[in-house]
Amino acid sequence: MMMTSAEIPILTAKNIGKQFGGIPVLRDISITFRKGEVHTLLGANGAGKSTLIKIIDGIHTDYDGELYLHGELVKPGNTEEARKLGIGMVHQELSLVPELSVAENIYLGRLPRNKAGFVNRKKLIRDSRQILAELEMTVSPHQLVGQLSIADQQMIEIAKVLSQNAEMILLDEPTSALSESEVQRLFATIRKLKQQEKAIIFITHKFEEIFAISDRLTVLRDGELIDTMSVNGKKDELEKVFISLMTGTDQDELTELYPPKADSFGEVLLEVEHFSSAGRFANISLQIRSGEIVGLAGLKGAGRTELARAIFGADPKDGGRLLLGGKEIEVKSPAQAIRHGIGLITEDRKKEGFVGTLGVKENINLTTVKDTVRRGLISDKLERLKARTYIEMLNVKTPSEDALILHLSGGNQQKVVLAKWLAAKGRVLIFDEPTRGVDVNAKSEIYRIMKAMADQGAAILFISSEFPELIGLSNRCLVMHEGRIVKELREGEVTKEKIMSSIFENQEE
To answer: Where in this chain does the record put each ABC transporter domain (predicted)?
Structure first.
């Protein structure tokens, strides 16, 4: 019987194994990827998903096992060799040059040249426009990448891969910084690539995306391949199966993802009165009580992150007052915010949440260094003691408190960021997309940490683009649109339909 195009293997991995510092991260992985299909890799942070595709992409070259492309043994020695083999990868971390234009980034290292050896600017712009049009992007090829939003920068990364005519495309959390409409544009592009018989490996932690785009799915757990299956069946049933395979927990033993909500709160702790910032947000007023989690919903560009940064003193505001416990306070810098007990867990943890060149211990102590100073010197003993306390409390998976934070999985990096603010004993905590790029287990743990902070009296402002977690965590939800709060949804009113209708009603006005 002849195979259909979707059944033709393009790449086969056989008995792949990989270690870091003597610790196995992949064990005897054998898997086949086919033409014209989206094959999702699913697993908890640290399961080995990114390591596997980095081997395929030539980033990791020291591994056991073999790779076969179109039946022939290959071993990419670097990413350039992988590109020549027709393999392209979009990383979770951006690798663009902010000072260069969109077109120059798309064709970085491959700029078209004329016979005299000079860059053919006309062809560069024309080809870039064609790629951008395929992604339905309206940005100019001439625009500097550093002036683009994170979401648009992510789309430029995808444009780079498409420009290389890769027949196998590796997507590592490509939607982590995209709005819902941009995700749909990306999925439309992926469907076109499937029709062109491209093979696509897709890593995501979002179950909605799995069901929207995947043909087959492989679950990895602790570096081992647990199962490969077709994504074809009832969503609710398959979701439970996926979580069970990821966690190694029987379906009947799976706990609820969201902790129970509080039904009573203390006095108003944080008050924002008439905050404004030209071109970003206007006349914002809100209150958060002690022990309350208030969600902040809105589409990309609504001004949510800009408002959070202004409250924290990271960005200036044009007008408005900030009150803490009924008393007006001045916050013109993050340092002032921290002194008042206000913390911000940023959406871009790698850029703003931690210091990548430091270890877990140093990052946990960043906001409370003064507490570990003795006789003018930082006490390593006190730093280590505090770090171990929070590593144990938050179940941070790390070889030791001295390990570089960059070597941890995304979920464990986020726990270290949370530990930093727990150590600071913040009274007001702003969470900006705190679960972006982490697995379902880490999400559940982060939700419970947030709830525990609220139970201890903190006032929490929670920004999220994921409707389920806004619904599952928020005691109230504020909907923001074009720099204004357009709706307040009370307990029981927070639904996807009401959030979206609040936005669209205001678009029509």
So the answer is: 11-247, 260-507
Task: Output the domain CATH number for residue 410.
Answer: 3.40.50.300
Query: What pLDDT is attached to residue 461?
Result: 96
Which of 91, 70, 76, 247 lies closest to 161 in space, CA to CA? 91
DSSP alpha helix (H) spans, 354-402: 360-364, 380-393
260 lies in some domain: no
Query: Domain ends where: 132, 165, 198?
Result: 165
Q: What is the pTM of this model?
A: 0.63
Written in H, E and C, the secondary structure of 205-261 is: CCHHHHHHHCCEEEEEECCEEEEEEECCCCHHHHHHHHHHHHHCCCHHHCCCCCCCC
Which segments of the chain have a pLDDT < 50?
A: 1-2, 253-254, 508-509
Burial class of residue 504 in the structure, from the number of CB atoms within 10 Å of its CB (0-12 exposed, 13-18 middle, 19+ buried): exposed
Cα 116 to Cα 486: distance, rounded to the nearest angstrom? 58
Per-residue confidence (pLDDT) for residue 1, from 0 to 100 = 47
Rounded CA-CA distance 31/492 in Å is: 45
For residue 235, the model assigns a pLDDT of: 77
Q: Which helix (H) or strand (E) holds 432?
A: strand 428-432
Q: What is the pLDDT of residues 352-398, one digit of tens each?
A: 667 777 888 888 887 777 777 787 787 788 888 888 888 888 788 88
The domain total for the chain is: 2
Q: Is residue 52 part of a domain?
A: no
Taking Cα atoms as reference points, which of 178, 177, 179, 243 lies closest to residue 210?
A: 243
Neighbours of 218 (CB within 10 A): 22
Residues 155 and 302 in one domain: no
Residues 333 and 451 occupy one common structural domain = yes
Do the domain assignments include residue 332? yes
173 three-class SS: coil
Look up residue 353 and give its DSSP letter.
I
Which has the closest alpha carbon to 10: 38, 42, 45, 29?
Answer: 38
**Same domain (yes/no): 281, 151:** no
Burial of residue 462 (CB within 10 Å: 0-12, 13-18, 19+) is buried
Contact 255, 444 (CB under 8 A): yes
10 three-class SS: strand
Is 453 a domain residue? yes
> According to the model, what pLDDT value does residue 348 have?
66
If phi > 0 it is left, if psi is from -120 to 50 it is alpha, else beta; for residue 483 that is left
pLDDT of residue 250: 57
124 is in which domain, residue-wise? 94-165
Contact 140, 103 (CB under 8 A): no
- Share above pLDDT 70 across residues of the chain, in percent, rounded to a whole number: 94
Q: Is 70 helix (H, G, I), strand (E, B) or coil?
A: coil
Q: Cβ atoms within 10 A of the Cβ of 78, count?
A: 11
Predicted confidence at residue 7, as pLDDT, reads 66
Decide which of 118, 136, 165 is a domain's last residue.
165
Question: At a CB cut-off of 8 Å and minimum separation 6, what does 62 contact?
Answer: 18
